[in-house]
Specification:
By secondary structure, the protein is mostly beta strands. The protein contains no helices and eleven strands. The strands form two sheets. Strands 2, 4, 5, 6, 9, 10 and 11 form a seven-stranded mixed β-sheet that branches. Strands 1-3-8-7 form a four-stranded antiparallel β-sheet, with no helix packed on it. The termini are far apart.
Length: 122
């Protein structure tokens, strides 16, 4: 079992910044990756960013981003407190959505946070 607690959402003007946090607890040693998804009203949930441990070949930490957020969002992970962050800069109204933290396990199972609302006003 993995528990995820998100925080950091809110209302911001276009061009502003927010940082989302997701604190993980439980069986985190089986984590393969942590991800942020978002879901806007009337739209499907989409992957925003992910961070995972590198493989034997790649080593290090591997991050991936949706094209729509590249250069604006940064995902990072603090191992000391088992927290993953999503720094969001240059926000626009198109970024308005509920943001969900996801823990993807080595077994293939996924855990989800409760979601945090991000609203960007124009």
């Amino acid at each position: 079992q993995v528990q995820l607690v998100e925080s950091g959402g809110g209302l911001v003007q276009a061009g502003g910044s927010l940082r989302l946090s997701c604190a993980a607890s439980g069986s985190i040693f089986r984590l393969a990756a942590m991800k942020w998804y978002r879901q806007a009203p009337g739209k499907q949930r989409e992957l925003v960013a992910s961070i995972s441990s590198g493989t034997v070949i790649t080593s290090g930490t591997v991050t991936n981003y949706a094209d729509s957020v590249k250069g604006r969002f940064t995902i990072s992970r603090e191992y000391a407190n088992n927290t993953v962050y999503l720094q969001m800069n240059m926000l626009g109204p198109e970024d308005t959505a509920v943001y969900f933290c996801n823990a993807h396990m080595r077994t293939g199972y996924d855990y989800w946070g409760q979601g945090t609302q991000v609203t960007v006003s124009s």
